[in-house]
Amino acid sequence: MIPSALYPLVSALLANVVAQVGKTIVYYFKSGKWDLHWVIASGGFPSSHSSTVTALSMAVGIQEGFDSTLFAITAIFSFIVMYDACHVRYYSGKNIELVKQLVDDLKEASLIEFDEPIYQEQLKSVLGHKFIEVVGGFVVGLIIPLLLTPLIF
């Protein structure tokens, strides 16, 4: 039995784990290959950022009331995180892809030497999420606290 005081924390952490494992399963169905890297990867479907903050908000709402100040705070926090994952971080990743392509194109088209250490860095281009990935995380985050509720209360 989980103490009710830990219900929001357990809901959020479990939603994160479910989303991260879900990414591995989704990748398998898309590619036919198992890649356990997705268990710790950012980006992909469903968004673990979205699932975590949504589960936290949902659990707080169930426990404290959806008309509580604490729920309002966690809901706003959740919206900010999901917006960031879907917009700011997603487009940062797109910018990294563009810069990598430009550097590759310049290497091929000219005699410019790219021997500075900055050009050797491996940049991660998948930083954020597409809208559907955020929605997937949101759904996971709604479901997990609802499944845990009978075990807590």
TrEMBL record:
Alphabetical keyword list: Membrane, Transmembrane, Transmembrane helix
Superkingdom in the source lineage: Bacteria
Pfam families xref list: DUF212
Listed InterPro entries: DUF212
Sequence intervals crossing the membrane: 68-86, 131-152
Protein known as: Divergent PAP2 family protein
